[in-house]
Amino acid sequence: MKIQTKVFLARDLSLALDEASRRTRRSKSEIVQAAVASYLSPDGAEASEAALVRRLDRIGRALERLERDVTISNEAVALFVKAWLTATPSLSAGDQKAQNAKGQERYAGFLEALSRRLASGRLLRAEVLDERPANEGG
Question: 31 near 17, Cβ under 8 Å?
């Protein structure tokens, strides 16, 4: 048995209820009844807490992946800089102009290669993770 109840809603809430009713093709009574039942449910707080915990777990896993990716990036840059500093000979002062021109050329090439790599979708993270088990096993 259903009992008619009169409630007052703020205008924006009433408009949102109208829109939800049209969008879901359900009566406003059905929507309000489900919302009130959820609000008054004794385990409603537990369900909300469980949903919050699931979201926090997802965020935690995403942060762990982000930390791993940043670590990989930092190590890759550090290895590159170390190799570059080791392999790059110092030039005399007379070669400064040629050195600057070559540096600009190499930088443009680097940006082009980086753009191609990012566009291909093949990232260092995937290469590192693909190669890691092979290196550990042998």
Answer: yes
